[in-house]
Inverse folding.
């Protein structure tokens, strides 16, 4: 009887761990997905999404291998400094901060748009971008101040509400999908969405927390990673199918327009549906997705700053930590156009490709073949797998560097070129 109860408990923990992985991935990035991939079309974007899913899942399994070499409680900083030395430690510090701030800025910018939209629709009040962003970050940043337990409870409620809104939205919106919209294909722009797609499958920074949770059970940990990312992929594909099948690529309230202004797609969805419930559910889903992502990233950043700067999370120390998060986030979110998509895109291109892609491969390579760590928990595939994964993330990093150095256009610039071509073709 005890063995049966233990097996049930282990299955429950495994399922919970899968949902934790999926919940970390699924969030505000979903609102940017159809916008960044829409100009390429459903089929090209699906192929790019599957490639990014495979790469991020592989890198997570490699990072797990490294984590199991360490003592329980070891985080990215400890792992990188142990295997890659001082340079690895510095890179981890810089990139972790970059990913965290970029993500929080993105969620605040999009959250501000939803606050302004909600105020206009529900109360007939017009809020500026600055006021909307300030309301969002003060309101939900204040929850962080109340402590980890309170944040955990609020986040659980919001995540359940987000999933409920998602399934209600998909169920309600099926009848609105136009199959001819899904036939659009533009392969030449599909690879430009890779940086943002990496962000939407990013969860590796919380992976060390899974190891003690599943009691260093290698099989369970691998199933949690693969199951969690697979759930995420299925949710994303359904979301892509729904939105790209409802919102047209061209026109005044199109995917191109959403990309041009850098707004979440839910702001444009209501213009193309007959049922008012679709747009209402989309707004609720967007709100819950953004807040859950914001809370998770902000809480992690506060703990990281507290540990790194040796500032206690009590009294004045907690206020100082809060200001270190709120002030720079508000400035970038409120005063820079298109920051929602740009921040997520840059975070994936630079942050995830380095911290969650290249570094796990390098740590495994050094740990296996130079430091000769134990071989019992190795990910199958040997050096060929490591080289393929490394090549993919180097490609993503080089792509982002080329975009920012002007050698190739970004997804935003591609959008501008397409719009300009349309205007010239129409004689405008």
């Amino acid at each position: 009887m005890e063995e049966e109860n233990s097996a049930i408990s282990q299955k429950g923990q495994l399922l919970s761990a899968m949902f934790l992985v999926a919940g970390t991935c699924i969030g505000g990035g979903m609102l940017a997905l159809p916008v960044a991939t829409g100009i390429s079309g459903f089929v090209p974007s699906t192929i790019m999404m599957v490639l990014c899913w495979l790469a991020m899942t592989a890198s997570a399994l490699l990072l797990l291998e490294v984590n199991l070499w360490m003592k329980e409680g070891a985080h990215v900083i400890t792992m990188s400094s142990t295997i890659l030395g001082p340079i690895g430690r510095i890179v981890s510090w810089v990139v972790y901060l970059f990913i965290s701030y970029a993500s929080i800025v993105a969620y605040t910018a999009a959250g501000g748009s939803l606050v302004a939209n909600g105020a206009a629709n529900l109360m007939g009040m017009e809020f500026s971008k600055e006021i909307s962003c300030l309301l969002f970050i003060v309101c939900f940043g204040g929850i962080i101040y109340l402590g980890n337990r309170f944040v955990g409870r609020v986040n659980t409620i919001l995540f359940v509400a987000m999933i409920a809104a998602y399934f209600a939205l998909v169920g309600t919106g099926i009848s609105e999908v136009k199959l001819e919209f899904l036939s659009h294909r533009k392969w030449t722009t599909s690879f430009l969405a890779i940086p943002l797609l990496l962000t939407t499958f990013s969860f590796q920074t919380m992976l060390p927390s899974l190891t003690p949770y599943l009691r260093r059970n290698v099989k369970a940990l691998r199933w949690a990673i693969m199951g969690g990312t697979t759930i995420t992929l299925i949710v994303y594909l359904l979301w892509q199918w729904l939105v790209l099948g409802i919102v047209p690529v061209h026109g005044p309230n199109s995917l191109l327009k959403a990309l041009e202004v850098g707004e979440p797609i839910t702001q444009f969805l209501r213009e193309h549906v007959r049922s008012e419930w679709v747009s209402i559910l989309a707004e609720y889903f967007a709100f819950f997705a953004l807040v859950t992502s914001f809370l998770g990233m902000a809480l992690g950043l506060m703990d990281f700053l507290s540990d790194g700067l040796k500032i206690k999370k009590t009294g004045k120390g907690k206020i100082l930590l809060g200001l270190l998060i709120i002030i720079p986030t508000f400035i970038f979110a409120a005063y820079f156009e298109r920051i929602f998509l740009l921040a997520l895109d840059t975070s994936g291109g630079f942050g995830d490709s380095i911290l969650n892609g290249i570094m796990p491969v390098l740590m495994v390579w050094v740990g296996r073949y130079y430091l000769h760590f134990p071989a019992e928990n190795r990910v199958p595939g040997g050096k060929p797998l490591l080289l393929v994964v490394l090549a993919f993330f180097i490609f993503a990093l080089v792509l982002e560097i080329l975009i920012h150095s002007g050698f190739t256009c970004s997804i935003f610039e591609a959008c501008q070129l397409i719009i300009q071509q349309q205007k010239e073709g129409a004689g405008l």
Notes: The radius of gyration is 21 Å. The first helix runs from residue 2 to 25. Confidence is low (pLDDT under 50) at residues 1-5, 417-428.
